[in-house]
Amino acid sequence: MFNHETGSPDTERTLIVYGGGGHGKTLLELVQAVGIYRVAGIIDDGLAPGSNVLGVPVLGGSAVLKDLCEHGIRLAVNGVGGINHVDVRRKVFELLAQAGFDFPAVVHPTAFIEPSARLADGVQVLAQCDISSEARIGFGTVINAGVVVSHDCILGKVVNLSPGAMLAGGVVVEDYAQVGMAATINLNITIGSYARIGNGATVKKDVPPGTVVHAGCIWPPRND
Question: Which pTM value belongs to this model?
Fold first, then answer.
């Protein structure tokens, strides 16, 4: 259980990280590198209260969320990556919102974002990304390490771009789609909602919703 007596009085800049796995660890260190927020602790149903993740205490599981919110901690970072299971990440956002939490966008200090780009709440931009002119990044989307999002791209809700993905200009990635590591998406392509683009794939034509483009493939498939 969270110890209110040791909590910071500056709750407006205090947040929790939900999830203590790999993505949660990355976000924890990202938030610490930014230096704006104080991390009160980790929330994870699978970790023992009182243990720690990278020296940050585990406060408990989802049962403590309401208690934390009532005591003034209203910011949360979703540390559940949801690769191949995007609905798990979506449900974490719903759980946190129902408890009363808001979701700041967090950006690693080494990322470059043009002034005309726009990030919605809950967006996570990791190290050494490049987000170019008039790109629009939707709620809860993950822009992982080394990703390039070129000019005029539009990303929907809870999209996940894995490390090294490259989006040319004017690409649209609809809600809940996932793009794998080092995948290349050509100019003015639309990736449909819930589509999954495998690692190293090259996409040359629109991908319908729910479609899986396998790792290393060129889309659309050739009929040789």
Answer: 0.92
